User: Fold this.
Amino acid sequence: MIVDNAIYVDGRRAAEPGTLKETYEAVRERRGVAWIGLYRPTQEEFSSVSEEFGLHDLAVEDATEAHQRPKLERYGGTLFVVLKPARYIDEEERVEFGEIHVFVGDDFVVTVRHSEAPDIGAVRRSLEADPELLRRGPEAILHAIMDRVVDDYMPVVEGLGIDISEIEAEVFGGNPNVSRRIYELSREVIEFQRATEPLRGVLGNVIQDEPTDVDPEVRRYLRDVQDHLLQVTERLAGFRELLQSILSVNLTLSSLAQNEEVKKISAWAAILFAPTLIGTVYGMNFRYMPELHWFFGYPFALVLMVLTSLTLYLVFKRRGWL
Amino acid sequence: MIVDNAIYVDGRRAAEPGTLKETYEAVRERRGVAWIGLYRPTQEEFSSVSEEFGLHDLAVEDATEAHQRPKLERYGGTLFVVLKPARYIDEEERVEFGEIHVFVGDDFVVTVRHSEAPDIGAVRRSLEADPELLRRGPEAILHAIMDRVVDDYMPVVEGLGIDISEIEAEVFGGNPNVSRRIYELSREVIEFQRATEPLRGVLGNVIQDEPTDVDPEVRRYLRDVQDHLLQVTERLAGFRELLQSILSVNLTLSSLAQNEEVKKISAWAAILFAPTLIGTVYGMNFRYMPELHWFFGYPFALVLMVLTSLTLYLVFKRRGWL
Amino acid sequence: MIVDNAIYVDGRRAAEPGTLKETYEAVRERRGVAWIGLYRPTQEEFSSVSEEFGLHDLAVEDATEAHQRPKLERYGGTLFVVLKPARYIDEEERVEFGEIHVFVGDDFVVTVRHSEAPDIGAVRRSLEADPELLRRGPEAILHAIMDRVVDDYMPVVEGLGIDISEIEAEVFGGNPNVSRRIYELSREVIEFQRATEPLRGVLGNVIQDEPTDVDPEVRRYLRDVQDHLLQVTERLAGFRELLQSILSVNLTLSSLAQNEEVKKISAWAAILFAPTLIGTVYGMNFRYMPELHWFFGYPFALVLMVLTSLTLYLVFKRRGWL
Amino acid sequence: MIVDNAIYVDGRRAAEPGTLKETYEAVRERRGVAWIGLYRPTQEEFSSVSEEFGLHDLAVEDATEAHQRPKLERYGGTLFVVLKPARYIDEEERVEFGEIHVFVGDDFVVTVRHSEAPDIGAVRRSLEADPELLRRGPEAILHAIMDRVVDDYMPVVEGLGIDISEIEAEVFGGNPNVSRRIYELSREVIEFQRATEPLRGVLGNVIQDEPTDVDPEVRRYLRDVQDHLLQVTERLAGFRELLQSILSVNLTLSSLAQNEEVKKISAWAAILFAPTLIGTVYGMNFRYMPELHWFFGYPFALVLMVLTSLTLYLVFKRRGWL
Amino acid sequence: MIVDNAIYVDGRRAAEPGTLKETYEAVRERRGVAWIGLYRPTQEEFSSVSEEFGLHDLAVEDATEAHQRPKLERYGGTLFVVLKPARYIDEEERVEFGEIHVFVGDDFVVTVRHSEAPDIGAVRRSLEADPELLRRGPEAILHAIMDRVVDDYMPVVEGLGIDISEIEAEVFGGNPNVSRRIYELSREVIEFQRATEPLRGVLGNVIQDEPTDVDPEVRRYLRDVQDHLLQVTERLAGFRELLQSILSVNLTLSSLAQNEEVKKISAWAAILFAPTLIGTVYGMNFRYMPELHWFFGYPFALVLMVLTSLTLYLVFKRRGWL
Assistant:
């Protein structure tokens, strides 16, 4: 699906060709920079674009089927970038990953979105509001998209951070059944790391390895994006460590809880058992047992039982076993 | 065993010599690129090939006995590559590793297969269907084989991923006896890593270090293969971490399960024991015990027993111990 | 808020302009080095500064909102450094992180503080007391601030070290309930590492990558700062390892404590149960049981009970179960 | 002790001087390459050699006392290499490390063996059988010795692999007392890693850093040795990971075994206790208890006891507690 | 305190000036190399030295107060090296760290010792006994001190190794209370690593980065020191891994010990409880219970009790529960 299709001249939206053909012509006549936005394009839609701009077969194959890892590939004069935007779905405590492919040529940008988020339309609007930046060429568009993707990582990281706090509260609040949540969060973090770690290399490549192409200002902006990305990856690495620690802590707490229970149960066993001993004593059949003949022997025994249990109860209470 | 033996001219299968000798002559007369496919060749079969193409003794030794690690070696003008294809055997939850050796010269390729999978014949057929690529020379053949080997890793990774999901389901479903499965899966993943990690260096060497030999297009394709390989190795690294976490989680859950059992058992002990206490009381031999003389004393005692047990049962039930 | 605003000539405080405007003029006329100290400046306060000194938009954006990671960025001739000072709050056993931004130009330094600590005023006073150093230019000011920030890490590290010693004492003193403290200390250490690790790269960049700008003497001083920083990061890494070990040790000790308790409880169960057995024996209804007819049969049985319990008690005592 | 002492000309054993002096003369007159084999030489034996060939004091000191780590040192024109051969002693499940020192000059090789294994005589014989290789100079001899040392690592690795399989069988066969074996095997693997890891650097140095000295063919052979070494070190790293996993698994299984035992014991306690309850009931002293007066009251009670126990037994059996 | 103060000419102790002043003069007149040995110098003592030799303020500050990490700093023509000698205090099982600072100029060496060990006097004597080496200049002195410091690490490593062996013996000998010792040894090893790891970089810098200054022979000797250091650091890394393993093993063994105890206790419970069941049976009040009227009924019951207990004892004995 073609989402948007515009020609930019000097940082301003100059034309909105009705068809891709008109866009191609405009580009061929060097009348400006084209930015074509596609959403899950069909094989046919995409083949038109790829033929016109001479996109490489491998990139085309990658672009029509998702499930790539973040990467940057240079085919002749065209840069092909794969990004993995992320979105935090709060109710499921799950991170959902999307996929965006960006082709950057000398005077065109083609963005291919394979997921709902992020809203590239919003990126386009904010760029159009900053002609100063947009005029710096296709790389500025690439930067804007990367910036959005990385900025959108932040709330995800926050969401995971909140989950970890919740887990901490649960673990230390005495609910050891959070093992599953800890594990699933670990899995989310690992997947998230897989989506963001390779991006460091991608950004590093755009910034450092191609000193000739990229506008120095855009490079500065890209460094800013990289900085935000580092913040994301460093916090994720910290999350991994925290989750591992909390797993150990949870095990220790569960072991301690067992100690407490064993003590509690043993205390109650003693409280129950002591009167039985007394009962057994007065159940003996000796001929000469004075208590048996007392008029208040029976109540005496009962009181003795209750007193023994009560004493034990208080003893255990004071020792913190109950 | 000689599986296939053909001469390619301009990307097309030009001749199928009946014997290796004819192939050698064709190559000597520079009539095209030879591709000889061998399957577990005997010492004699292979010595003919190695003499003709001047293969290095060390490579020959490696090629006739399997059990190599993935590697790339350059002997004079000939490239020697060892690959470890993998196959997932679902019923045994086991990864089976094969071994393929590829010799790449200026105008010949010799493939030596030491395992059933993968089907190099299929690779040959699909390459023959793409003369454009095949014409780019022996490296294109090398790429095609590597591509197949790495593509075949994907279903193995998927299979392992499914196993991990199953294990998760079992662990959280309360079956702690999956320790063995977790361990064996870890072992599979470690072995798989050993088969794939060195391949990164091999591909890196083919792509970067020899800028003069390899066709730029082929290099681009190799980079695509490397990208897929990275996806494999990154997921495997993630699997290792997940399996380690799940081992810890399993230990914690087993500890928690023990807590639950201790509680349950203790509850039943109390339920059984309480009536014993009552029975002991009425088994005492005091002369003056009014209940003993009641007509309904015995039923009264039985009802008392049942009521006590029932009360305890309900108490424990409400506390979640039963 | 403008905290301080002065012009330095030859390492001495030459002027204290009443407004920023006068400062700008002085700088423009190359009359000395300006050092403007700001504390949580408003958008307006800061825009005046940034316009005058041509600070980059990205840096300005960073400077007005805190929550950056330590970094160094070079925008044209201006160096932008983000530092994360730390302060140890003893009563809460918590590390509090601040944020300082420093802009270093050819003849100006702008410091933006976003936290109470550290006292940059003190840094300024001590620098003013050492004109020899201050004369070496804006980098000397940068060094002085970094030096203070890194020196202030030391007491934090000491505080964490003391906490670890306390935890060790508690763990080995038999109080296994320190899991929470261990975990929270781990979290503090991880956060602290996140604040200090990137600074290594920042210092490395200032020292090595820009051989032309920085005065060799200042570089030497920066190397000294880096050395102190390394001491901090190495100790933190050691803390992480110690805390992980102590978590394991705590688990082991909790398991051992359980062993001890099980032994103790079992011993008491035996001591209680043995007289019950005797009581049960003399509660049997055999016609011919000589003891039942002894005049001292009952006291005999009681003494037997007590003796059995006492014997068991002594046996368990000697075996260390009680 | 002088084990062997020969002069090689053109890859063939040309002379066997009766004394070291004759060997020195032959070398001085450039009549061939000398290969002197020593076994735990005394200070005096070695000083003669070291003086003649101008070996460096440091190397001499190293060579007369063992306990070095694998290393390569270049003193002027002489290469000094320390190797740690390994041998697997099956009955003790222990890896024994030896030590070999090799001095390689322009026209001499001195090998100093400090351990029984490996048999350098065999290396010499097989080299003498391949004059083509031997003629390539002293480095070929160095290669042959390294090749033997690394090849001898393989059976050690295999032995450790078999031990791990045995341990796996024991762990999953329900014998948790393998902790000690796991630990000791870990120690062996760590020591083995310490003997083999530095060798990677040694080989890398011989192969890459000295492009002028080494015959390209010998270099190729050394690369083959390095490849085998990598196989060893990769498998050892895998062993470490497996042993760590199996330690965790063992702990989990021990915890699960405890759960099983607690269940089993509790089940038997219930089976034993239920008849006690019945007995206690019929031990009560109520005047009106019909069963007590039945003629078959006693057998009835006994049957009731057995039936209750049997029912409990079957219930627990079906639940898998017994 | 000035410990020693001498002028060396051509490797020989030429003069022993009575005061530092005379030493300064001798150096100024280029009459030889001065080696001044200080022990915890006061601010004043040191300021004389630092002024004379133009030592850098930063180095002076470092030298008068200890607590540095091992490092190498070059201030103009003067090398400043910080070393952390170690000493093993056997009775406390503790590693004590000292500190030595060495200033190396073109024709002077100043050593500042802040700890008892090591005996630099002994280093001086042994150097004076080897004029050949001493003549090679101040770097030879630096080497000799480093050599001594690193050699002194060896007995510390041995001591730690012995401690680990003792711990192993205790752990496998069934004493699980070694957790504390394991932990404290881990802490010692971590501290020791912190003292030795940075030294690798220091030595590497002296050897590699300054190709112009250092005598090649001295460099060779330094490489030997580095080799010994590597042996130390590799063994320490091994110790860390062993201690981590043994911590896990200890936990497992403690868990197994608990299993054994639970079994043992349960067995004794059954042995005690079985006669109680019999006693309860014969305590029932049925009118028709033949055994009650037997003359030998009571002894029969007692024998039955003993036999049951004995049988259970033997059964548990054979099953290995007792």
